Amino acid sequence: MNSIDSFLKSSSELEIERLKKERLKKEIVEIQDGFQHKLNDLRGRVRGLLQGQLTRLLQTALDASRSEPPWTKAIQERLEDALKLIDKEIQKINKEEAAAGK
């Protein structure tokens, strides 16, 4: 093999490697975008949970605790509901992590 053939082969190999590198860069960006989207969805869901249901349950329990006499049963029920809500959200997150890991 002469030097021109060797040069052409090297150039061709370099071009192939350059194309592979560009393809991998695009794949990385697509993966990052996908995970960023999932993260934003999760943040929104958790924010909604905290600002919505959980806050409402805790506010109700707090209001019941300030009553004279305190509504112990209502306090217990709202706190139990809050714990169930938290557990349910943790289970969702765990399922999503397991599905993403497959």
Overview features:
2 helices; 102 residues
What is the element layout, followed by pairings?
Elements (H helix, E strand, L loop, with lengths): L2 H64 L5 H30 L1
Plain-language structure description:
This protein has a domain at 32-101. Helices cover 92% and strands 0% of the residues. It has helices spanning 3-66, 72-101. Helix 1 (3-66) runs antiparallel to helix 2. The longest helix is centred in the middle third of the chain and has 64 residues, at 3-66. The chain is rod-shaped. The mean pLDDT is 89.
**How would you sum up the global shape?**
rod-shaped
Q: How would you characterize the largest beta sheet? A: none
Fraction in helix: over 70%
Strand content: under 5%
Stretches where pLDDT is under 50 for at least 5 consecutive residues are none
Which structural class do the helices and strands define?
mainly alpha
Could you tell me the mean pLDDT? 89
How many individual helices?
2
Quick structural overview:
By secondary structure, the chain is an all-alpha fold. Helices cover 92% and strands 0% of the residues. The two termini are 48 Å apart.
